[in-house]
Amino acid sequence: MNKCCCNAKLKLIYSCSGAANTGEMADQISRKLAKEGYGNMTCLASVGAHISGFVESAKRADENITIDGCSVACAKKILEHIGVTPTKSYALTEMGVEKGKTPSNEEIISKISNKIKKDLPLKADQENNAEGDKNSGCSCCSC
Amino acid sequence: MKIEILGTGCPKCKKLHELAEEAVKELGASAEITKVTDINKIIDYGVMVTPALVIDGEVKVAGKISSKEEIIKWIEEKK
C-alpha cells in the first residue's frame, strides 16, 4: 500500500495466475515486477469477487497493469467488468510463450520480465518526475 | 450503522472524517464513526490508497475525499 494519499502514483499489477504454465508464469512475472519496484501487486480474484476495497482501489489507481498468460485475457476482462480499462495489458502468448509447452523456469521468467520492464517505468522514477505536481498541489502530509 | 475512515492520519483523512461527521449530523442518523489507522486492518479491506470511507463493511471510496453530498447519499442508501 502507498504510505499516504499523496506521495506516489498508485500503480497496481494484476496477474491472471491461471492453471496452465502461462498462468503460472504470469504470476511469477507479476511478483518479480512488484518486488523490483515496478508497481504493487494486488489480488485479481478479489476484484472478480467485487470486494469493494479492491474495486475502489482499482478505480482510483493511476495505472492498472494486467499480465495475462494467454490471449483469453481474463485479468484484463475482469478489470473491464468493473469499468476499468487497464493502462497496459500483456499476454505472454503474444510474447513468445506457448501455452502447455514453454517451461516455467527462471530463464523464461527473466526474459519476459525484461521485455515488460522496457515498457514500464519504475514507480520511484515516476514519483520523482511528479515532484513538481506534488509540491504545487499537495496539502496532504509531510512526506 | 458503522462508518469507518481508513487512513494513517494525514489531513485528507481528517477532512474525510469531518465530512462524515457533518453528514451524520445533518441527517440525524444513528451512526458510529471510527478512525482506522492500523495499516493491516486497512489492507484487510483491500484498500491500496487512503483515505477511504467504509459504511457497514463496504468500501465506498478510496484515495480521495468524497463530498458531503456523496456521503449523505451513501448513508441514506444504507438506512
UniProtKB/TrEMBL annotation, chain B:
Annotated organism of origin: marine sediment metagenome
Pfam family, one: Thioredoxin_3
Family annotation (PANTHER family): THIOREDOXIN
Domain Thioredoxin-like fold: 1-76
Name recorded for this polypeptide: Thioredoxin-like fold domain-containing protein
